[in-house]
Automatic annotation (TrEMBL):
Top-level taxonomic group: Bacteria
Spans through the membrane: 38-60, 100-119
Protein keywords: Membrane, Transmembrane, Transmembrane helix
Name of the protein: Uncharacterized protein
């Protein structure tokens, strides 16, 4: 995938997921909604965060590491974007359950860091 089409695809996906999030927040009451609304909200929120972080990380890598070809930044940016989206969704879920504490956040960040290190340093076959 070329970098220009990647950026366009992510931008369109961000606009769509932002629209879905806005519709959920406007049309549904969180105090009287069914569980499916929360599933839709968390899914849309995850997709929005993943796309947002992937796009921002890709653009930052493209600006700061301009000597490499742009397409080399796409897999790492998407992976890191998904990990940051997991972190954001995890924080939101824990806060909703009133279980968010500094140590639980520390454990989540540690698990995600180990996951990133595993993918970063695994040997290519």
């Amino acid at each position: 995938m070329k970098s220009a089409s990647f950026v366009i695809f992510l931008t369109v996906a961000l606009v769509l997921t932002a629209g879905v999030l806005a519709a959920i927040l406007i049309y549904f009451d969180p105090f009287s909604s069914q569980g499916i609304v929360f599933v839709l909200f968390y899914t849309a929120f995850f997709l929005f965060l993943a796309g947002f972080f992937s796009l921002i990380l890709f653009l930052l890598k493209r600006i700061t590491l301009s000597k490499k070809p742009d397409w080399q930044f796409i897999p790492g940016s998407v992976r890191q974007g998904f990990l940051l989206a997991i972190l954001g969704n995890g924080i939101l879920c824990l806060q909703r359950q009133q279980m968010l504490a500094w140590w639980s956040l520390f454990v989540i960040v540690g698990i995600l860091m180990v996951t990133e290190l595993f993918f970063k340093f695994r040997k290519s076959e």
